[in-house]
Write a structure and sequence with these properties.
The chain is α/β, with parallel strands linked by helices and 179 residues long. The chain folds into 2 domains: 2-71, Double Stranded RNA Binding Domain (2-Layer Sandwich), CATH 3.30.160; 80-169, Arc Repressor Mutant, subunit A. Helices cover 30% and strands 16% of the residues. The protein contains 5 helices and 6 strands, in the order ββββααβααβα. The strands form 2 sheets. It has a 4-stranded mixed beta sheet, covered by helices on one side. Strands 5-6 form a two-stranded parallel sheet. The N and C termini lie far apart (35 Å).
Length: 179
């Protein structure tokens, strides 16, 4: 059984999902793929396991602290490849960004030289079911473009600025699939 609750944040209402012991989803209101990895209907339950821990983490995060990702039990649902990419996302420090190409290189290193395209990495990043805590918003284009973000580019920029990223070198593309 899967449980859900909502959390009011500076970037809008967040939906949290728990499998009864860990967080398996965190989506922004209107986010692409909202709830898409949960295999069955979620039952509203504000007191389900891990929600109090997640609320505390989010309170700290939005208060400007840098809570460790390891403080929250996570169980994102996805393929082995996706889970590897999501693990790599958790290793991007606060206040920093990375690119899809760098992530693809890290995947290759973790898979003993078995390479993958940056496009495949981008697909995994885009389907991240635990937004904010698994920081997919910290991935940008190699040219500094604010590439796609399932929660919207304005929210991506807001989260990066909140974390202290120097966004003066970043730009919003005027054309392409990132919009």
């Amino acid at each position: 059984m899967y449980y859900s609750t909502e959390y009011d944040s500076p970037v809008g209402t967040l939906t949290l999902a728990s499998d009864g012991s860990a967080i398996c989803g965190l989506w922004l209101e209107g986010q692409k793929y909202h709830g898409g990895t949960i295999p069955e209907a979620m039952v509203p339950n504000d007191g389900a396991a891990a929600f109090d821990t997640m609320r505390t983490w989010l309170d700290d995060y939005f208060a400007g602290k840098k809570p460790p990702i390891g403080d929250v039990p996570l169980a994102p649902i996805g393929s082995e490849f996706q889970r590897l990419v999501w693990q790599l996302l958790t290793e991007i420090p606060y206040g920093e960004t990375t690119t899809y190409g760098r992530l693809a290189q890290q995947v290759k290193e973790r898979r003993s030289g078995k390479g993958t395209a940056a496009l495949a990495v981008g697909g995994a990043v885009g389907h991240n079911p635990v937004s904010i805590i698994i920081p997919c918003h910290r991935v940008v284009g190699a040219d500094g473009s604010l590439t796609g973000y399932a929660g919207g580019l304005a929210r991506k920029l807001q989260l990066l600025q909140h974390e202290g990223v120097d966004t003066t070198r970043l730009y919003t593309p005027t054309r392409g699939t990132a919009l």
